[in-house]
Design brief:
Strand content: 5-15%
Structural class: alpha/beta
Number of helices: 12
Largest sheet: 7 strands, parallel
Order of helices and strands: EHHHHHEHEEEEHEHEHEHEHH
Shape: globular
CATH class of the largest domain: Alpha Beta
Strand order of the largest sheet: 3-4-2-1-8-9-10
Radius of gyration: 20 Å
Number of domains: 2
CATH architecture of the largest domain: 3-Layer(aba) Sandwich
């Protein structure tokens, strides 16, 4: 059965919620190894370049002042200082800005996944979902655009929940199908225009320009677009004022809430309900608590042992126990790649191409 994701008269019955662990197969950094990956990218940058200087300053500041923080905590801390105007008392040469950190984040992710050679497991995942719950939607906290690249390969069109296109990429005006991806924390290929107050999404080619040192300019007013990625902090929605880059995300969060509240089956893949992202955890809990349709919850993660496994499962059970429909719960700890490779839908597809 071919999914028809562009019919929004009915709510999709399935939700696939993706966390950082779902993109590890392609080389995407995790929050725990982000600093090491950033250092690797820094070492490969040209010695005399503005890009390397930004990396050098950010890494030194991170090491000196926020050594025990991961990248999301470091980003959130600097953004908080900017909100409270504490950074304004420093000189320009001393001040690390949130924009500096965003640039380092974007560049580190882009260069980490630029040359992946493995088979595309998001392609496998789409086949599996089409087989099990043809009417589905993706919700993700990931900034990378690996999933979107899969849709391009499969002749699909991505609906970002109302985010308009920067331009009209050739060859995508009449898609065979439409896939909805609600990105709660923004995306590497989203650019925010301060003058227009809008977020625009770009294709992969322009995404590389958007996240580069030179940047990309708004097609309407020529203002330099800011990468629209936000830290998983409890303040992000509270700050979504009319002129904030977060404002266009509110409809996306509302839509995600409705899908979580009404779905019949949900997959959580590579998402650990991290304590640092308490807002998303509460968001998921509140939405699922109201779900009277939910029949099954599937949690796919890497193998865990001892206290780590108990803690991980308890985080989910604390949310699932509140769901009024009492859904079936399945923990699959063989990892995302193994799950995809073993799934019957992938084997059937392979046989059909022999």
């Amino acid at each position: 059965m071919t999914p028809t994701m562009n019919n929004h008269a009915t709510t999709p019955k399935g939700v696939c919620f993706l966390g950082a662990g779902a993109s590890v197969w392609a080389g995407a950094p995790t929050f725990s190894n982000f600093r090491r990956r950033t250092e690797e990218v820094y070492n490969k940058l040209p010695d005399i370049s503005p890009e390397k200087e930004i990396f050098k300053r950010v890494l030194k500041h991170w090491e000196d002042d926020y050594n025990t923080s991961n990248i999301e905590e470091y980003y959130a801390a600097i953004e908080m200082l900017e909100t409270l105007k504490f950074n304004s008392i420093k000189t320009d040469s001393d001040c690390i800005t949130a924009d500096n950190i965003v640039y380092v984040i974007c560049t580190t992710i882009q260069k980490s996944i630029a040359n992946y050679r493995k088979q595309n497991f998001y392609n496998h995942l789409t086949v599996i979902l089409e087989d099990e719950i043809p009417d589905f939607i993706f919700i993700t906290t990931n900034w990378d655009i690996l999933l979107e690249s899969t849709m391009d390969f499969r002749d699909g069109w991505v609906n970002y929940g109302g985010i308009p296109a920067y331009d009209n990429p050739s060859g995508q005006t009449e898609p065979n199908r439409e896939y909805s991806i609600l990105k709660l924390h923004g995306s590497l290929n989203w650019g925010f225009c301060k003058e227009c107050g809008k977020i625009y999404y770009t294709d992969k080619t322009k995404c590389d320009i958007l996240t580069s040192y030179e940047g990309l300019r708004c097609g309407k007013c020529q203002t330099k677009l800011e990468p629209a990625i936000i830290p998983p902090t409890s303040s992000k929605l509270a700050k979504a004022g009319a002129n904030s880059k977060y404002a266009p995300l509110l409809p996306i969060w509302r839509s995600a809430f409705e899908h979580l509240k009404l779905c019949e089956k949900i997959y959580f893949i590579g998402y650990s309900l991290p304590e640092t992202d308490i807002e998303t955890k509460i968001f998921i809990s509140n939405a699922l608590k109201e779900n009277s349709n939910l029949k099954e919850v599937v949690i796919i993660s890497d193998q865990k042992y001892g206290y780590s496994r108990v803690d991980f499962e308890e985080r989910y059970h604390s949310i699932i126990s509140r769901i009024i429909s009492n859904p079936k719960v399945k923990f699959i700890d063989e990892g995302f790649e193994e799950f995809c490779q073993k799934h019957p839908a992938i084997h059937r597809r392979s046989l059909s191409h022999l």
